[in-house]
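Hi there, hope your week has been kind to you so far. No rush at all, and the record is pasted right below.
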Amino acid sequence: MSCKRILLVHNYYQQAGGEDQVFAAEGRMLEFYGHEVIRYTQHNDAIANMTALELAQATIWNHAVQQELTALLEREQPDLVHFHNTFLLVSPAAYSVVQAYGIPVVQTLHNYRLICPAAVLHRNGQPCHQCVGLPLALPGVWHACYRHSRPQSAVVAAMLAFHHGRGTWQHEVDLFIALSQFARQQFIAGGLPAARVLVKPNFLDTDPGVGAERGDYVLYAGRLVEGKGLPTLVQAWATQLDRLGIVLRVVGDGPLKPALQAMIADTGVEHIQLLGYRPHAEVIPMVQRARLVIFPSEFYENFPMSLVEAFACGTPVVATRRGSTAEIIARHDAGLLFAPHDATGCATQVARLWTDAQLWQRVSRNGRQAYEHHYTREQNYRLIQSIYTLAQQHHAHRNRHQKGSA
C-alpha cells in the first residue's frame, strides 16, 4: 500500500510542551524518509477572542475546522491523516471529514483526555480513575478537574460523552498510538478497542551525543506546576542533600514558582538554583553536563521527552515509581526510582547515584544503549511505517465489510 502523502493535524496548547516537540519531530522524520508532509494546525491562543458559548460549541464540534479540512483534503488528497492533538479547537469532528473522503486515520494518544477530563488521571496529589469507562464524566465535573472550573469541566465532559455516544473513536479512527504499555492499558480500560491500540514510543530525531564533561549538579527541567513533585525535591534537599553540598538546578517557569521560592527560603536550603525558563537548545547541553536528571512527577506521565533526552546524553535518571515513567526506566535499568511524595526515598536514590561511581557508569551506559536500540529516528520510522500500513489495511477491510453489509 502507498502512503506517500501524509497530513499531520495538531492543536497547539497555549503553553508549549512535549506534544509540540513530537508533532514537529515526526513531521521532520517523515520528510527525511521521502514522504510529502502536509500540516494543518490550530492554536488555543485563538480562544481569547471567543465567547464561552462559541468555545463550548467548537470544543464539541468545530464546523469552521470541518470546512477548512474539507478544502484541504480536496486540494491535497493525502493517503493518510495522522492526528496528534484535537483539543480544544480542532475537535473530534475532524475525523468525520477525513472518513467521508475514505482516508485512513491514525490518532496518537499523547495524554489521557479521552478517558479523563483533566487528561492526567490525577487529582489531589493521587492517581484518579473515577471517570474511566463512564459514559459521562460526572466526577470530573463535580471536582472541577479541568482548569478548576465546573462549567469548563462540564464542556469537556459533554464533548467526551457526545463523541463516545456517537462512536467517533470506535468508528472514525482506524488505529491509535499509545506511547507505552502502561498507557495502552489505561485506554483499553476506558473502552478503546484493544486490537487497535498499538504502542510506539517517542524518540529524538537528532542524537545530542553523550556529554564529554560532567558538572556537579542535578538537573530538573520542566514546568513549575502542581503535580510535578517540586515540593518533594525541596524537602529532599532540606532533609539530606543540601548538607551534602549537592546542587539542584531547576530550569523552567510556571505558576508554582512563588510558592517554590517561599519553600526554599523557609527551609533555608542553599543549594537549589532556580534558573527560570531556558530555550530547549540550551537545555540539552545542561542535560549532557548534569551528573543526574531528576524527574519527581506525581502524574501518570505518558512518555516524557526528558527521559529520552537523558538516555541519549548518557545521564542517569532518578524518578518516581509511577506509570509509564517507572515502566520505561525499569525496562532499561537506566535510573533509580522512588515513591511519589517520598522526600527521604528521593534523597536516598540521588545520594546513591551521586556517590557510587560503578552504579553511575552502569546506569549511564544502559540509558545510552536504550536510546540507541529503541528511541532513534531510524527505529521510530520503522514503527510508524508498520502502523501506517496496518491503518490502511484496517481501513480497507472496514470499507469492504460495510459494502458487504449494505
